[in-house]
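Justification of resources, computational component.

The compute hours requested in this renewal are based largely on the per-chain cost of generating structure records like the one below. Each record pairs the submitted sequence with a full C-alpha cell output. That output is archived, and it is also reused by downstream analysis tasks.
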Amino acid sequence: ELDGLLAERRLLEAKIQGIMYPAEAHSLKQNMGTLTQKITKTSVTAHTLSSKVRRLDIAQARLVEAISRVEKIVSLKTTIDKVKAFIEVKKYEEAARLTHGVLHSGETLTNDASTEVLEEQERQLIKLVIKECDRAAVRAAEAAKHRRTRKPAAGGGTARSQLGLSEDGGEGGGGEDTKGDTTSDPANIEDGAITPEFKKVFDLCLVLPLLGKKHEGLERYCFAARTMLVLGSRKLELRTTKDVKYPDRLSEMLDAIAFCIQTHTEPLRERFGPGSELRIIQELIEECDTKIHRLLKSYVDTNKIAKIVKGVQRHRMQMMDAKANDDGSGSNKAGSAYDPKMLDTLLEEMAYICREIQIFDYNIRQLGDRARKELQETKAQQGLLKAMIQHRFKDTLPRTTKVNQLQQELIGYYIVIEEFFMTQDIETAISLDEATEGAPTTSMVDDVFYILKKCCERSFSTCDVNSACAIVNLLNMMLQTYYKEQLEKAVNACWEKSANLSQLLFSTDQKSQSKMEGMIVAALNNFQVSAAHILTLQKHLTAHAVEVFAHQPNAVTMAKQCLDNLAETYEDYMRVVQHNINTFVTNQVEKVNGPEALGSLLDRFGQQRYELKEEEYATREANDSYIPSLLHALNTQYQAVEGRVTEVNLDLILHALASFILKRVEVFVLRK
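The structure output for this chain reads:
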C-alpha cells in the first residue's frame, strides 16, 4: 500500500507541476515583451504629436491676436481721422462717441502710438467742449437778461413753455438749423422757453459723460438749468407791487421749480446715470431758498404781520387787566382794533402758504433721498458720488433752510393770530346769542362750534402738526373755561329766576310760564348739545388728522393725543348736564306746590297707612284716586318737556325723575 500511495503521489506532483508551469508560459512572456515595446514606441510618437499640436495652437493664437491687433490699429487710425474731421466741423458728440467706444470700452490697445494720439485727441476734445460750453452759457445768460428787459409777449407763456418745453412735447430751439424758427427772434420767445443758446449748453453738457467727465458735465448742466429757470422764467421774478397776490406767486414759483426738476430728471438719469438728479435738486433748492425767502419776507413785511402779532398780544394784556378790574358794569371791556374779516383772510393766506411750503419741502426731500439711495447702491455711480462729496462736501439736501426757518416763524405768527381770532369770534357769537324758533338750542351753540371747527380745520390745513396741536389745545381750553362758564352762567341764572317756581310752572300766567320754561329748557339743551358737538368734533378732527398727516405717523400720534383730551371734556360736560338735570327735576318736584303736584302726591304717600282692615282695603281699592292722580302728575311732567328738550335730555329727565321718586318712596317705607 505504501508503494501504491507513493506512486500515486508522484503522479499527482507531476500533474501539479504541469499546471503551475505550462509549456506556453515561455511564449506568453515573449509576446508581452513585444507588446511593451510597441506601446512604448506609440507613447513616444503621441508625445511628439502633442508637442507639435501645442506649438500649432500657440502659433494660431498669435496669428489671431496679430490679425485682431492689425484690425484695431486700422480701426484706430480710421477713428482718429473721423474724430479729427468731427472736431473740425464742431460735431463734438459724434467725436465723443467714437473716442468713448475705443478708449472706454475695455479693449484699448496699450503701448501703441495710435492710442496715445486718440487719447490726446480726447483731451483736446474735452477742452474744446468745456470752453464752448462755458461760452454758450455766458451767451445764453446775456440773451436771457436782455429779454428780461424787454416787454413780454402779450399772450404770455404756457405752463410747458415757462419751463423750456415747446407745446409739441419736444425741446424748443432743437437742431442747428434755426431757419424758419420764430424762437430765434428774441421778440417772439415766450417767457421761460428754452432758447437756442441754452439748448446748445445742454447738448454740450451731455457730451462730457462720453469723455469721462461725468461730474463736470453734471455740474454745468444743473447750473445751466438753474440759470435758465431764473433768467428765462418770469414766474421766479419777485414783483413787489401793491396788488401782488402772494399765495399765487408762491404757487407759481414752487410749480416752476418742481416742474423744472421733473423736466430735467429723465435726460440726467439717461446720460449721467441713476441718482444724478440729486445734483439738480440741490441746485434748485438753493434757488428756491433764495427766492421763496425773499417772497415770504416781503409778505410778512407788506401785511405787517409782526405788528399785528404785537397788537394782539397787547390787546390780550388789556383784556386781562380789564377782567381783573371788572366791576360788573362791563365798562372796562377793551375793544378790538382788527377787523375779523381781515384777520380771517390773512389767516387763510398764512395757512395756504405754510401748506404749500410744507408739501413742497416734503416732496422734494423724498426725491432727494431716493436719488441719494440710488447713487449709493449703484456701483457705476460711486465715482460720481465721491466727486460730489469732494466738491460739495455733502451728498444730501440741507437739513434746514432759510425758508424752513421763516416758515416756522410764520407758524408762530399764525398760532397767535388764530388764537385771537377764535377768542374774538366766540365772544361775539356769545354776545349775539338769541333763541331761534323751533330750534332746541340758542344760536350761540352752532355759531361757536362752527368757529371752532373752522379754526381747527384751518390749522390742520397748514400741514404742520405743531400748529394743529396748538389750536386743538386752545380749543379744548376754551371749551373748559370761557364757553363752559357762559353755559353755566345761563343755567345758574335760570335757577335764580325760578326761585318762586310754584308761581311760574303750571300757573295761570301762561306767558311767564312759557318764557321761564323756555329759558330753562334752552339752557339745558345748550349744555347737552354742546357735549354732543364736542364728541362729533373730536371724531371729525381725528379722521382729518389721519388724512392730512398720512405720511407722518408720529404727527398722527401727536394729533390724536391732543384730540383725546376732548373726550375728557365731553365727559366733564355730561357730568354737568346730569347735575343740571337732577337739579331741574328736584325743583319741579319740591318747589311746585298744589294738591295735584307731584311733590304733594309723594308727601301723601308718606302719610298713608299700610295696616288696613279687610273692609278698608276693599274700599280703597275701589275708590282711592291716589294712583290715577300720581300717573296724571307724571304725565303732566312728561308733557311739559316733551318736544322741547333733546332726546338725550328727555331720557335723562325721565331717568332722574324715576330715581327721585324711588328714593322718596324708599325713605317713606323705611321710616314706617
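The two ends are 151 Å apart (CA to CA). Residues 151-192, 500-509 have pLDDT under 50 and may be disordered.
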